[in-house]
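quick q for whoever's on today - can somebody do inverse folding on this one?? i tried earlier but teh output was garbage lol. tokens:
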């Protein structure tokens, strides 16, 4: 069943899409914008090495842990209200991040930022598919949103490096303030009012506590993979699994569940989320690993490494904003998605075989171009497939699930691939290899695992593309 659409003038709908994409861009950019600024923040505020991980971890825990809750809340009280609350909270907390005078204030403000990001992004996809009903327009709108989702990480690294070098780390957070201040009144004018579908029913508070605690504990366990002490990490993983298991049982009994289990009967929805988990795990890890390769193997500085990632964003923009919507309309998402995954696997294969004398133009640039093209093909197709069967009353929950899968996949892929790369590097160093070659070997192994993740996603996508046999 296709989601119903909201009647609105064409110009108003496209302005609404601009506001929604601005919110999504702020949320995604702030996942990675601190990556190249961490040394400056750590030195200025006096973070310990372990404490510095919470600059990213606090944001990620709140973001991923609250997406399902925010998505269901949007279904109940109105997606417009939830988006506006998230935008306001994100803008205020960004200002507080920039003003932070000690580690505790910055970590607390980053956590609140994550709450705002979850509120904004959980309802975005549901709002887009209800705003745009005509297939051609919906393909263009989803393409624009996919561009933001796919390129936000590389944009964050680029902006973080340039702004930190030109001004200071404080400004990587201050940049959000004028965007939020301008976007909020425009959002009040152009976002359609929706009162929610079940405003008289209570939100599933026990389910919210279980899923939020489960995802928060799980994400925290993932962020600890890079630290010594495997027993503690394993215990956190067990707690996370128990909480998420309790959430699944709760959803069977709740009158108004956060995640209606009927959604999981959709083969297309479940398959699209499985593909997304594998794809984002490979791609989010790729972004960080590529920057590390350029800085530690090719000896580029932060600004140069950020600029070197620009081709990825350009390729994603060209494909997702112009080419992919037309391809999806003509050939269908089931055809375009596997093609994009094949191109991504090719790009990662090039990175997994980087020679010791690798150069940017001769070796990295072709791989980055393939990855940008592949992601620009795959993400819009995947998002369209994932939301195609969501009903109006469940579009917020489906959107929240999709975004949750993306955040969990990113955290899982990043931490796991970094740990694999570091372990293999240590092994090569212990065997007497020069540091530069040991690092390169570690990164190549991680890129190779990324190839395996994408090929697995391709197999799932091909199964997803097969039409079910008639009963």
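ok took a stab at it. sequence:
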């Amino acid at each position: 069943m296709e989601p119903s659409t909201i009647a609105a003038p064409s110009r108003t709908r496209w302005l609404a899409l601009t506001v929604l994409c601005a919110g999504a861009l702020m949320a995604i950019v702030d996942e990675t914008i601190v990556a190249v600024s961490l040394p400056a923040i750590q030195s200025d505020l006096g973070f310990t090495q372990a404490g510095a991980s919470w600059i990213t971890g606090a944001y990620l825990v709140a973001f991923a842990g609250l997406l399902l809750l925010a998505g269901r809340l949007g279904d109940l009280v109105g997606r417009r209200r939830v988006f506006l609350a998230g935008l306001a909270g994100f803008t205020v907390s960004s200002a507080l991040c920039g003003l932070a005078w000690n580690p505790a204030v910055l970590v607390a403000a980053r956590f609140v930022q994550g709450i705002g990001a979850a509120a904004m992004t959980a309802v975005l996809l549901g709002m887009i598919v209800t705003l745009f009903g005509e297939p051609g327009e919906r393909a263009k709108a989803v393409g624009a949103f996919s561009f933001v989702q796919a390129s936000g990480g590389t944009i964050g690294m680029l902006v973080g490096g340039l702004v930190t070098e030109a001004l200071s780390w404080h400004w990587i957070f201050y940049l959000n303030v004028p965007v939020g201040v301008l976007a909020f009144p425009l959002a009040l004018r152009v976002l359609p009012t929706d009162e929610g579908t079940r405003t008289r029913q209570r939100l599933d508070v026990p389910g919210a506590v279980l899923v939020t605690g489960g995802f928060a504990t799980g994400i925290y366990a993932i962020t600890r993979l890079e630290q010594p002490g495997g027993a503690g990490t394993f215990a956190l993983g067990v707690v996370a699994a128990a909480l998420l298991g309790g959430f699944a049982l709760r959803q069977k009994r709740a009158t108004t569940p956060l995640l209606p289990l009927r959604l999981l009967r959709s083969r297309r929805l479940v398959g699209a989320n499985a593909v997304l988990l594998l794809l984002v795990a490979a791609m989010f890890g790729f972004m960080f690993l590529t920057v590390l390769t350029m800085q530690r193997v090719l000896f580029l500085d932060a600004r140069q490494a950020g600029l070197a990632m620009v081709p990825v964003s350009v390729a994603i923009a060209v494909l997702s904003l112009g080419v992919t919507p037309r391809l999806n309309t003509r050939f269908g998402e089931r055809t375009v998605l596997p093609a994009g995954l094949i191109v991504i696997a090719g790009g990662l294969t090039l990175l997994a075989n980087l020679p010791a004398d690798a150069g940017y133009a001769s070796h990295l640039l072709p791989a980055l171009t393939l990855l940008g093209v592949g992601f620009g093909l795959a993400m819009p197709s995947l998002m369209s497939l994932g939301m195609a069967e969501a009903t109006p009353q469940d579009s917020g929950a489906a959107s929240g699930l999709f975004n949750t899968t993306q955040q969990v996949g990113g955290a899982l892929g990043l931490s796991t691939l970094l740990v694999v790369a570091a372990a293999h590097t240590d092994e090569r160093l212990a065997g007497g290899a020069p540091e530069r070659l040991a690092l390169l070997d570690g990164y190549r192994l991680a890129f190779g695992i990324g190839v395996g993740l994408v090929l697995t996603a391709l197999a799932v996508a091909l199964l997803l593309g097969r039409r079910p046999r008639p009963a």
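fwiw Confidence is low (pLDDT under 50) at residues 1-8. also The domain at 10-203+256-465 is CATH 1.20.1250.20 (Growth Hormone; Chain: A;). so keep that in mind when u check it
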